[in-house]
Amino acid sequence: RRAGSPRSRLTMAAFARVSALRALEVATVLGVAYLCLGELWPHTRSSPFRGQMWRRQQVFLLCSLSLAPLLLGRTHRLCNAGKGGASTCVGERTALWVLALVNTVPLLGAALATLWSDEESAAYAAILLDAIGFAAARLARLDLAASLMLSARGRSTWAYEATGGSVGFAEAVNLHRAAGWWCVVQSGLHGSLYIIFYAVRGGPRMAWEATFPVPTEGKLNRLGLVNFYGLLALVAMALLALTSLPRARFYRGFQSVHAGLGLAAVAAALLHDLPILIFAAPGLVDWFAGRYDDLPAGGRRLPARARVIPGTSGPWVELKIELAGPAAAAALSLSSPAGAWVGLSVEEISAEVHPISVAALTSTSMTLVVSGNGGDWCDRLASFASKRPRLWVLVKGPYPSGGWRGSRSRDPP
C-alpha cells in the first residue's frame, strides 16, 4: 500500500482522532485527580494546597474540566462516525466503589495526619475534630459538584457528552443519588464535628454562640451567622434526602419538591461558604442546559393520540405522537428505537415529566406504551385516554440508551 494512497491517509486520520481522544481522556482524568488531591490533602499549616494560589488553581481546574466534556463528546463522535452506537464505559458498580473510597480514605488520612501535630496533647481532641471536620467539608462540596453534574438530562449534559453518549440521565441517576447521599453524610459530619469542636474549646456557651446568630457584646455575631446558614443548608439537605426515599411510590410529590429543596440547600451553602459557588456553578449550568436545551424535540409541544389497549390489565395505554419538522429530524438521528426513551409530560394531567421507553419510531410518528399499573399519573392517563383520545404532550428527546455495563437499576429516573 502506497504511503500517499487514500486508504493510508484515512487510516492515519483515524489514528490521529483516536490518539486525540485518548489524550483528552487522560488529561481529564489527571485534572480530576489533581483537583481531588488538592481538595483532600490533609489540612495542615505546611500544606502545599493553601492560600490564594490554590484558590486560583481551583477556578482554572473547574473551568477546564467543565469544557472537557464538550471536547470529549465531539472527539467521541468523530471516532465513532459510521460505527453506530456509543463507546463503552466503566461499570456502574466500579464508579460507586470509587465514590465510596474518595469519601472515606481522605477522612482517615486527615485523622492520621494529626498524629504528627506540634500542638500540645491537651489540645489534640480539638485538632482531630478540626482536621476531620475540614476534610468532610471539602468532600461535601466535591460530592455536591458530582451530584449536580449527574442530575441533568438531555444530550447537552456533562455525563452524556463526556462519555460519547454511553451515560445519559437514566444511567447516571444511581451515581447522582449516591453522590447526593454522600454530600448529606459529609455535611452532617462536618456540622456535628464543628459543634463539638467549639464545645471542647469553650464549652456549651461557645458552641451556642458559634452556631446561632445570637448577639455577642452588642456586636454582630458573624461567626454564628455564617454557621447558622450552614445549619440551614444541612436542614435543607436532610429534607432533600428524606423526601427522596419514597420517590418510586410518590414520584409526583418527589418531583415537585426535589429541585426546589436542592436549590435552597445550595443557596444556604453559598451563604455559609462562598467558594462552594465554583463547585456548584458547572452542575447548575449543566442542569439548566439539560432542562431547557434547544435541540430537536427538546421540550417541544406535539400532538398525540391516546388509545387504551383492549384486554390489558391496568389498563395499558398506547400513545402515538406525531412528529414534524425538527422533531422528525431528531427521530431519524437514531438508527434504531431499541432502548431509546423520552421525557414525557401530558399537559391535561400535570406538568411532571416521566421517562418512557420508545416502542416504535419512524420519521413521522413515535409510539409509546404506558402501563396503567405504574401509579396515579398512569391511572389518570388511562382514564383520560378513554374519554379524549386527542391530546397535547411535551416531549424531550428521544435519547438513546446508555452503556453502563451490568446496570441493574429499576427505579424511574
UniProtKB/TrEMBL annotation:
Stretches assigned to the Ferric oxidoreductase domain: 138-268
Localization per record: Membrane
Q: Is this entry keyworded Transmembrane?
A: yes
A single Gene Ontology molecular function, please? Answer: superoxide-generating NAD(P)H oxidase activity
Keywords, in A-Z order: Membrane, Oxidoreductase, Transmembrane, Transmembrane helix
List the membrane topology term(s): Multi-pass membrane protein
Sequence intervals crossing the membrane: 21-41, 53-73, 94-116, 122-140, 179-200, 220-245, 257-281
Q: Per the record, GO CC terms? A: plasma membrane
Q: What is this protein called?
A: Ferric oxidoreductase domain-containing protein
Taxonomy of the source species: Eukaryota, Viridiplantae, Chlorophyta, Chloropicophyceae, Chloropicales
